Amino acid sequence: MFGCASACKPKDPATHTVKVNMGDLAAGAEKESQKEALEAEKAREEARLEEEQQAKLREEEERLAKENERLAREEEEERLREEERLREERAKEQARLREEAAKKAAEEAELQRKAAEKKAAEQQKLAEAFLKKHGFKSVTASKRSFFSSTYPLHKAAESGDEKLVLAVLAQGASPGQKNSSGRTAAQVAAQCNKGGSHTKVLSALRASSNAPAGGA
């Protein structure tokens, strides 16, 4: 039989020692270490991913900034090209308008020249016919009749024909020339003016010489 002296006797806390399994402690420490390592690795991975994300964001921002800069540069270049095109178009249009204006002015000048030539020819023809009809040798030569003498312009003014007066003036007749009675053509026309019959002739003579019409 076993004795109760050793088995039932209480253990002395001061002298009693608990046996610890060192293998279990080491295994627990290793697990804790592995856990911490995994957490550290996870944190590093998260930090790496965060850095990659930030790098991608910075790269995208830089790309967008460069793209915006490129678009702005291209837009400015297009604006400048459009301005240049518009300037060229305006210059061409102005040159065309100037050319048209010059051409029109030349055409009008040519028409005026031809009209003046035609008018001069008609006036010359009219004056020559008048001189021949009334026996004058030239527009400046007088013609005697009994005890008086007169000039082609005086005779034309007496007729009251404005076109005839202008024709004789155009051939060189002097509006200040006086006849044997000491009268100018305008004075002769004024003397003959009845009810405005010689008003146009007087206007033509006054415009030619600014000589006032006088009475008899």
Q: Topology, pairings included?
A:
Layout: H1 4-7, H2 22-134, E1 143-145, E2 148-150, H3 152-159, H4 162-170, H5 185-192, H6 199-209
Antiparallel strand pairs: 1-2
Helix pairs in contact: 2-4, 3-4, 3-5, 4-6, 5-6
Structural commentary:
The chain has a two-stranded antiparallel sheet with strand order 1-2. With 216 residues, the chain is mainly α. It is 71% helix and 3% strand. It has 6 helices and 2 strands, in the order ααββαααα. It is rod-shaped, with a radius of gyration of 63 Å.
Helix content: over 70%
Strand content: under 5%
* CA-based gyration radius: 63 Å
Mean pLDDT level = 88
Q: Which segments are poorly predicted (pLDDT under 50) over 5 or more consecutive residues? A: 211-216
Reported for the largest beta sheet, the result is:
2 strands, antiparallel
Which structural class matches the secondary elements? Answer: mainly alpha
General shape: rod-shaped
Q: Tell me the distance between the termini.
A: 196 Å
Descriptors:
216 residues; mainly alpha; two-stranded antiparallel ribbon; 71% helix; disordered C terminus
Structure described in brief:
The chain is mostly helical and 216 residues long.
